[in-house]
Prior knowledge:
Elements: E1 6-10, H1 18-30, E2 34-38, E3 51-56, H2 59-69, E4 84-87, H3 93-100, E5 115-118, E6 121-123
Antiparallel strand pairs: 1-3, 1-4, 2-3, 2-5, 5-6
Amino acid sequence: QEGCTTLMLRNIPVNFTRELVLADMDARGFQGKYDFFYLPADFQTGNNLGYAFVNFESPAIADKFSAMYQGLALASDRSKKVCAVAPATTQGRDANVDYYRNSPVMSMEEKYHPLVFDHGVRQPFPAPTKVVKPMRLRARKGQGEA
Length: 146
C-alpha cells in the first residue's frame, strides 16, 4: 500500500517473546528503523497472539521489511508458520500511541505494553490522557463459576 509505514506481521510463533521478535528484526538490519512495536499477548498463557504491529520511519523501510518477512519462517524448530505482512489499519507512530495509551493493556504488566523508540533507543510510553480501565480477563473454557 502506497505510503504505508505501519505493518501487521502475522504468523509469529506463539512462544516468541517481544524481545525475540525485536532481536530478529534488529539482526535483519532494521535496528533503529522502527519507532513503534506491539506484540499482543494472551495474558493467561503469556504467549503472543501470533501477530505484531510495527511502525517504520519511512514507507521505503516498511517496503523492505515486507519484502524480507513475507513468507519467512521465523522458527527453525517444529513451527511450520511462515510470516505474512500486511498494512495495519492504524498508520503512524502517533496514531498508534494515541490508540494504545488509554487502552486497558496499559494496566497490565509492562511486558505486555506496546513500545516506542527514538532512533533505536527505547523511550517511556506516553502517559494515558484519561483513566485506564483495568483489563477484564475472560474465564477460560472449563473454568466458569460452580
